[in-house]
Design a protein that fits this description.
alpha+beta; four-stranded antiparallel sheet; about 15% helix; twelve-stranded antiparallel beta barrel
């Protein structure tokens, strides 16, 4: 029966083709289903292509220690400049021309050629928040030593060194820093009649160690800073009896630079670029003083006040980066106008030795500083 045999051979072939067709159809259905659900959130392709979330970039507050350290260098540089200027221009620490011999010496005693001084001081200052800067509190302790000489009639030259350490605290952003600063200055003055011209130049350098608290411990950084400053001042000495008034007009310039830094440790450590800033100010004011002779010793009381005009503040923004992301942060500026004020007490132990104590205050709209100084002067 040939037709029956042909039918028996073709049946298995049709059965195999059906299975292949069913497998092909099932595969196509799976592919189409996958394509259909791939664009949806949480779909199969999303599970296969899941990536870790991007790491966070830097925050503007990460720059706080560097901004505060630069502000500290400006403030300490200005303080050193002005104190060194006082040594040359009849300020609270200068040689009194109304009693050149010091102590209980008479006014016609021959003035000494050389003089040296040593000081210990402490400063408590505060900068208010501005922009992304959360504000700081600073405590500084330091010492000063200096040497001066009269090299020609009316011409005085001097050199002085200031070494200080500042503890900077920024509680609002859980940050802190230490600034160890050394400054070296040279000063000169020339007196003709009642007028005195004085000039001071200082150069400073120091190390900044910053710490930022994070969820994974502290992020630490260490970098260098430098400071240069100059002060020019003219004063006029007017006296009546044992009292005096000394009007002064000065111009001050300072430039502060901090190097770039790279944090280590903690969560999300950042890298910061270098920062450069310039400031210039005009200071106008006067000192008032009076001395008493008590048992052959001179007790001198003085006070001063100055108006301050920050005529130029050029603080370049700088970039901080983390995980390839960067932002730009602006530096801290002082208010345009402010005032300085202070008082001094001096007591002559002998013709060669004098003890003195001074208070100096700086008052700005967003910055306040109080300084106390104890000093000893030796002349020969």
């Amino acid at each position: 029966m040939p037709p029956a045999k042909d039918h028996q051979r073709s049946a298995p072939a049709r059965t195999g083709n059906g299975r292949a067709q069913r497998r092909t159809a099932g595969f196509v259905a799976v592919v189409l289903a996958g394509l259909a659900i791939a664009p949806t959130k949480g779909g199969a392709m999303d599970l296969l292509d899941r990536r870790p979330p991007p790491k966070p970039g830097p925050s503007p507050t990460d720059a706080n220690p560097q901004l505060s350290a630069q502000q500290s260098m400006f403030d300490l540089g200005a303080t050193f400049l002005e104190r060194a200027g006082d040594q040359m221009s009849w300020g609270p620490n200068a040689v009194r021309r109304n009693n050149p011999g010091g102590g209980g010496a008479s006014q016609d005693a021959a003035p000494q050629t050389f003089r040296s001084w040593a000081e210990l001081y402490g400063i408590n200052s505060r900068t208010d928040a501005q922009g992304t800067f959360t504000g700081d509190q600073r405590r500084t302790y330091g010492g000063v030593g200096g040497l001066g000489a009269t090299v020609a009639p009316g011409l005085n030259l001097g050199a002085t060194v200031d070494v200080s350490n500042s503890k900077i605290d920024m509680p609002a952003s859980l940050q802190s820093a230490d600034l160890g600063l050394t400054q070296v200055g040279v000063n000169a003055s020339y007196t003709f009649g009642a007028w005195t011209l004085a000039a001071v130049y200082v150069h400073g350098w120091g190390n900044i160690a910053a710490e930022r608290d994070t969820l994974r411990g502290a992020s630490l950084s260490s970098y260098q800073g430098r400071l240069d400053g100059a002060l020019g001042e003219v004063s006029y000495y007017w006296s009546s009896g044992q009292s005096r008034i000394v009007p002064k007009l000065g111009f001050e310039y300072a430039r502060a630079v901090t190097d770039g830094f790279r944090e280590t440790g903690g969560f999300n450590p950042v890298t910061g670029g270098p920062v450069t800033g310039d400031r210039a100010k005009i200071l106008a004011g006067a000192e008032l003083g009076h001395y008493f002779v008590i048992n052959g010793h001179v007790l001198d009381l003085s006070g001063y006040g100055k108006l301050v005009d920050n005529v130029m503040q050029n603080l370049d923004p700088f970039a901080i980066t983390a995980h390839g992301q960067f932002i730009s942060v602006q530096g801290i500026v002082e208010s345009r106008y402010g005032a300085d004020a202070g008082a001094g007490l001096s007591y002559g132990l002998s013709e060669a030795l004098r003890l003195y104590a001074n208070y100096d205050g700086k008052f700005r709209e967003n910055f306040v500083a109080h300084q106390g100084t104890l000093g000893l002067e030796v002349r020969w």
